[in-house]
């Protein structure tokens, strides 16, 4: 049990695990680390069955991909230009911040699939490219220093994919959370869903501990490993792109991708003008706005549907949010009273939202209780 609880934290050695919650067993309070833990489907570890098909969700985290992050980062320069080969002329996908190409990174005679994220800006050349590239390099250095099992790593950058250096990251076959749920929702047990939520919570806690605000958390930038575990990608890009381009990104393109997940204080739904006719700037993303988005992720993972799924387009969602509406509680037992209360806390006023530690503790407790109910 102790190994299981440690693995659920998704933490590396530099991040100490959270203390495990106590449980009430037969009227007595007991530390879950003292229990022999059966898997979520009710079977014991010896049976070989587990929360996911390959048993990895409840095992100690291990290297999930053929790439070796330390080897790539410390044996090669951050500039990987010349080591990345693009697959196909056109991007595999496009998002609000740019285009994603599938490629192959070749190092030391071996190769691995990578995603190359090319930044797209929407403003005309203002002659300040040197300063913009300097800002981008600063942000990339921050990303390069991050190392956590629930945060998508950055291998380095490469030129040849646009005006600015493109970011080279591992390619995850199961893709974004939204499409993953669309394909597999009917096969996901509650235990698997809670594992995903705990992964996102721990990843977000780590980012905030490194003074990194995601700013755009949604079902499109939570990515899924082949073993059913989640990691967070694209953190900080919304703020960065607003600085690299102009307000067009923030006012138009951002809303199309993450409107359903965004905190209302950070959304650009209407043009607000001051009394003297000047645009009133919105507050930048904060850890609190990330917590709001986490509440939307909770709803999506538990229900299998995107927030406001009953609104087919963005226009009614904009209207709903501008009127203070939040997504409706799903029917059925997947969103219990406790879970719905916690989700609504995430959507409350900024000062009343849970902390990083609270979202980690809540998802951890829910997962442990899900397992213990099978005893």
From TrEMBL:
<dbReference type="GO" id="GO:0005524">
    <property type="term" value="F:ATP binding"/>
</dbReference>
<dbReference type="InterPro" id="IPR051681">
    <property type="entry name" value="Ser/Thr_Kinases-Pseudokinases"/>
</dbReference>
<dbReference type="InterPro" id="IPR001245">
    <property type="entry name" value="Ser-Thr/Tyr_kinase_cat_dom"/>
</dbReference>
<keyword id="KW-0067">ATP-binding</keyword>
<dbReference type="InterPro" id="IPR008266">
    <property type="entry name" value="Tyr_kinase_AS"/>
</dbReference>
<feature type="domain" description="Protein kinase">
    <location>
        <begin position="86"/>
        <end position="368"/>
    </location>
</feature>
<protein>
    <recommendedName>
        <fullName>Protein kinase domain-containing protein</fullName>
    </recommendedName>
</protein>
<dbReference type="InterPro" id="IPR011009">
    <property type="entry name" value="Kinase-like_dom_sf"/>
</dbReference>
<feature type="region of interest" description="Disordered">
    <location>
        <begin position="1"/>
        <end position="64"/>
    </location>
</feature>
<keyword id="KW-0547">Nucleotide-binding</keyword>
<feature type="compositionally biased region" description="Polar residues">
    <location>
        <begin position="43"/>
        <end position="53"/>
    </location>
</feature>
<dbReference type="Pfam" id="PF07714">
    <property type="entry name" value="PK_Tyr_Ser-Thr"/>
</dbReference>
<dbReference type="GO" id="GO:0004674">
    <property type="term" value="F:protein serine/threonine kinase activity"/>
</dbReference>
<dbReference type="InterPro" id="IPR000719">
    <property type="entry name" value="Prot_kinase_dom"/>
</dbReference>
């Amino acid at each position: 049990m102790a190994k299981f609880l440690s693995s659920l934290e998704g933490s590396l050695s530099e991040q100490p695990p959270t203390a495990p919650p106590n449980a009430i067993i037969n009227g007595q309070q007991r530390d879950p680390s003292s229990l022999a833990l059966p898997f979520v489907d009710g079977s014991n570890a010896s049976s070989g069955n587990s929360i996911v098909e390959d048993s990895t969700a409840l095992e100690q985290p291990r290297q999930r991909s053929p790439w070796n992050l330390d080897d790539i980062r410390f044996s090669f320069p951050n500039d990987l230009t010349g080591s990345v080969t693009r697959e196909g002329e056109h991007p595999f996908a496009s998002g609000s911040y740019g285009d994603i190409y599938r490629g192959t990174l070749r190092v030391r005679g071996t190769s691995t699939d990578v995603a190359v994220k090319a930044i797209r800006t929407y403003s005309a050349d203002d002659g300040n490219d040197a300063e913009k590239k300097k800002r981008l390099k600063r942000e990339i250095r921050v990303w390069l220093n991050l190392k956590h099992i629930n945060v998508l790593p950055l291998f380095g950058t490469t030129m040849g994919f646009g005006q600015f250096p493109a970011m080279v990251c591992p390619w995850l076959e199961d893709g974004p959370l939204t499409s993953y749920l669309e394909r597999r929702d009917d096969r996901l047990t509650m235990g698997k869903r809670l594992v995903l939520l705990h992964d996102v919570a721990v990843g977000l806690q780590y980012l905030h501990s490194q003074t990194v605000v995601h700013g755009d958390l949604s079902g499109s930038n939570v990515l899924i490993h082949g073993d059913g575990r989640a990691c967070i990608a694209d953190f900080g890009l919304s703020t960065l792109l607003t600085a690299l381009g102009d307000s067009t990104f923030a006012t138009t393109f951002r809303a199309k991708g993450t409107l359903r997940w965004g905190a209302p204080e950070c959304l650009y739904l209407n043009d607000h003008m001051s009394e003297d006719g000047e645009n009133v700037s919105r507050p930048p993303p904060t850890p609190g706005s990330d917590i709001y988005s986490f509440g939307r992720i909770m709803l999506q993972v538990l229900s299998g549907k995107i927030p406001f799924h009953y609104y087919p387009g963005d226009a009614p969602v904009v209207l709903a949010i501008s009127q203070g509406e939040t997504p409706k509680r799903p029917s059925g037992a997947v969103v219990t009273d406790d879970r719905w209360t916690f989700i609504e806390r995430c959507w409350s006023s900024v000062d009343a939202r849970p902390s990083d530690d609270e979202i980690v503790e809540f998802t951890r407790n829910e997962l442990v209780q899900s397992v213990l109910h099978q005893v």
